Amino acid sequence: MKTANALHKAGTGKATEDLFGRIGEFLWEQRLTPDPQHYAFAYRVLTDSRSPLAQAVAVLTDGGVRLSRADIEKLGGTIAPSAAGADEARAKSDGLVAQTQMQVEGFTDIVVAMRAETEGFGRDLAASADAMRDASIGPDEVARLTGAMLDRVRTAESRLEAATHEASELRAKLEEARDNARRDPLTDLPNRRAFEEAFEAQSEKGTALCIAVCDVDHFKSVNDRFGHAVGDRVLKAIAEALTGTCGAHLVARYGGEEFAILFAGVDRITALDTLELARKAVAAKRYRLRESDQPLGAVTFSAGLTAAATGECLGTVFGRADKLLYVAKHNGRNQLQIG
């Protein structure tokens, strides 16, 4: 793989004048934006091929798999806020965490109050039972004690109902948080984590699987010419087209301008036919700038498609599809390669 080759070159003592080029190659392979944080991370990786960091990167990228944001963070790098909508997603996540925390605290308070109420009710019930056994008390006193016990029962029931409601809301918030952790904030598609989990689950069932790796052609030029806001709208449009055509299967935004599709229960040819419909649908559209109605032109994508053998891990299958994607790019883009 190119990343492994770049690591090797960095450790051979080659003159430093091409270090900038190797860093650029590394950033391109990993689909990282040219931000200072990413340059610093790439510099650390490429200037010492024997370092634990470089070796960890080599292992993670073996077979063509690109580094994820989580991978870089775990390795001690920082992530540049390159994706539009990240602030909004972070704010939404922080708000959800705050709401959940408040509900947890409220639920705890209710449980503590119920426990105290139950203990007090038990003591009062025992005292009332002893009093009723006393032959000296009259019917009015028995009625008063019975009414008092019924009031305590109603209070306990009310608190239990409130606790049950809080528990249901808390469960819903936690499910929402779990879903958000597996969803891309820009396109609302499943993210890389969701894709990996789905592949593992389907693989364990023995389902026939195919993987397609799709990459928007000349996406950098769209961002450079029209800005990231337009680039984001293009990504949303691609996401909608892929979902509309391949909706029976899992379509995920894997990172940057790259999408991945998990075809389950179909063979390569069926998957290829479905993906070809998506490619044609995307290529046939003509986009215009919302602000000025200026033509944006055609937007296309290239893709590599492969079938997973029984027991094959995701890294191996994805790496094969990714290499096929590079073949499609090299052969002129706006096409599919199957292998």
Q: Can you describe this structure in just a few lines?
A:
62% of the residues lie in helices and 11% in strands. With 339 residues, it is of the alpha+beta class.
Characterization of this structure:
By secondary structure, this protein is α+β, with helices and mostly antiparallel strands. It folds into 3 domains: 2-74, no CATH class; 86-180, Methane Monooxygenase Hydroxylase, Chain G, domain 1, CATH 1.20.58; 192-338, Alpha-Beta Plaits. Helices cover 62% and strands 11% of the residues. It has helices at 2-10, 19-29, 36-46, 52-60, 69-74, 86-133, 139-180, 192-205, 219-226, 228-246, 268-284, 314-330, and strands spanning 209-216, 250-255, 258-264, 287-288, 295-297, 301-307, 336-338. The strands form 2 sheets. It has a 5-stranded mixed beta sheet with strand order 2-3-1-6-7, with helices on both faces. The chain has a two-stranded antiparallel sheet with strand order 4-5. Helix 12 links the parallel strand 6 and strand 7 (336-338). The longest helix is centred in the N-terminal third of the chain and has 48 residues, at 86-133. The model is unreliable at 7-12 and 79-87 (pLDDT under 50).
CATH superfamily of the largest domain: Reverse transcriptase/Diguanylate cyclase domain
According to CATH, the fold-level topology of the largest domain is Alpha-Beta Plaits
**What does the overall shape look like?**
elongated
CATH architecture designation of the largest domain: 2-Layer Sandwich
Radius of gyration: 30 Å
- Helix coverage percent: 55-70%
How many domain modules? 3
Number of strands: 7
Biggest sheet character: 5 strands, mixed
Which class do the helix and strand fractions yield? alpha+beta
The proportion of strand residues reads 5-15%
